[in-house]
Amino acid sequence: MAAPFTRVCRPLWRIITTTTLNKGARNISSSRQQWSAQNVKTAVAASPWALHGAVCLQRLPVVSQDRSPIEEEFMELMHQMELERSLLSDHELRLLEDAARMSRKQEEDYDSDEEDEDYRDKEIVTAQDLEDTWEQKLKQFQPAPRSQGVDKKDMGSSELCLADSLILLVKKDVGSQKLWLLPQIQWQMGETLRQTAERALASLPGADLKATFLGNAPCGFYKYKYPKDIQKEDSVGAKVFFFKAVLSGHKHLPLEKNSFAWVKKDELQDFLKPEYLKQVRRFIMAL
Amino acid sequence: MAGIVCRTVNRIISSQASCSTSMVAVRHSHWFTSVLSLKTSMPLRAEPKKKKKVDPRREIMMKERLKKKLKRLEKVPPELIPIEDFITPAKCFDETRIRDAPKLSFEESERRALLLKEWSRYKYAQHQTEMDAIKEALEAQRQALDELKLESEELYKAAVSPDTDIFPFQHEGPSYTPPITNYEAPEGKYNNITRVYTQ
């Protein structure tokens, strides 16, 4: 009779503990109480998890990626084929005419009266001259270099690899260890998880980052159990829900090197724990 | 009309009574051609007064007919606005503009064919990786939502509700070189020669 007795006993105990011990970690809403009374099994398994909201802040690429060798070859081929199949443009026709006229001038029996009326006496600006002037003008403009001369070791700067999308990582104390994580914060009662994620972003010390959150739904989750000595009946572990956000605005102050890092997807494995990494990699798309 | 006749008769009788000494029949008004026959006077006999109902109706009918004719003329469908992009300009049919097609060597044509096949394979592999990445991300999201549902219904409903603030979403895509800080682009002049059509 032990089994049915415990099954009857547990919901009562749960209701008592939820009303008396007001633990912030657990969700205490009236709907939850009814629900937990009905589905006992899942209530016991799900309720002892602490909820956290985390933000996966991405700085999207600023500069286009370099072409791979096959892409370079194909681009050359396409340019060639396009040139072969096209018609002559006005500028090209003009170039040809000028060339023909020059060659006629060089001949011995050149008679300037045979030329067209328009080109007889005027000083002509040849198309070649125009091309040269355009080249000169282009050289006057100095574009910014593609790879900013930022030291590769300085992970705190968001100007690192302009051609890739970077993720923000934060070094945090979890229990006794210092771990690199995506910025996360504990969920409080009365707010949605997205607001938790926004709070997590705002509460980063020294960072004035403006981000646009992409939607209300989380993009991934990670659950872990606390080590055995901290585990209690009502706090087995924690669930972290990740929300995607895109960094908006250009210049940002460089962040502290030791606690912040902007990392590419390939470099994530140097920073994150394997289990955590496995879950996080699923929703980060570095295309 | 009868009233006017009566009044004129009275006047005549009174006038006749006043100048009863002269027995000559005096015409007091040029409208009375004969004194005895008073009942028909010129205004009564004149034709133009017979306008009544027929003419206004005829006028209205005429106006309606004209309006119908106008409507029929106006029913012509409006001229379609030509799409400039679909009309090849006359310049392209100029024969002097045709390039001499270069003769490709056998090796060159072989190289091109092989490169095209290589490219299709590369693009297919790229597409497959993209699709797999998208599927993986969707799966991760689905599982996250399932877990959230297990946790609490409220939070799940909040997560699944549509977000009205994202759109319109704007983001500057990647360019070839990064933007120069504090750059002032020079003002450019241009003449807009697009043709505007009205229907």
From TrEMBL, chain A:
Q: Do you know which Pfam families this protein is assigned to? A: MRP-L46
Record's SUPFAM superfamilies? Nudix
Domain (Large ribosomal subunit protein mL46 N-terminal): residue spans on this chain:
49-143
Subcellular localization, per the record? Answer: Mitochondrion
Question: What UniProt keywords are attached to this protein's entry?
Answer: Mitochondrion, Ribonucleoprotein, Ribosomal protein, Transit peptide
Instruction: Give a yes or no for keyword Ribonucleoprotein in this entry.
Output: yes
Keyword Ribonucleoprotein: yes or no? yes
The family database entries (Gene3D superfamilies) matched by this protein are listed as: Nucleoside Triphosphate Pyrophosphohydrolase
Q: Which family does it belong to?
A: Belongs to the mitochondrion-specific ribosomal protein mL46 family.
The protein's name in its UniProt record: Large ribosomal subunit protein mL46
* Originating organism: Cirrhinus molitorella
UniProtKB/TrEMBL annotation, chain B:
- The protein's predominant localisation is mitochondrion
Q: InterPro entries, alphabetically?
A: Ribosomal_mL40, Ribosomal_mL40_metazoa/plant
Print the keywords alphabetically.
Answer: Mitochondrion, Ribonucleoprotein, Ribosomal protein, Transit peptide
Top-rank taxon of the source lineage equals: Eukaryota
Q: Where does this polypeptide localize? A: Mitochondrion
GO cellular component labels? mitochondrial large ribosomal subunit
> Into which family does the record put it?
Belongs to the mitochondrion-specific ribosomal protein mL40 family.
This chain belongs to which protein, by name? Answer: Large ribosomal subunit protein mL40
Organism, by scientific name, is: Cirrhinus molitorella
Q: What lineage does UniProt assign to this protein's organism?
A: Eukaryota, Metazoa, Chordata, Craniata, Vertebrata
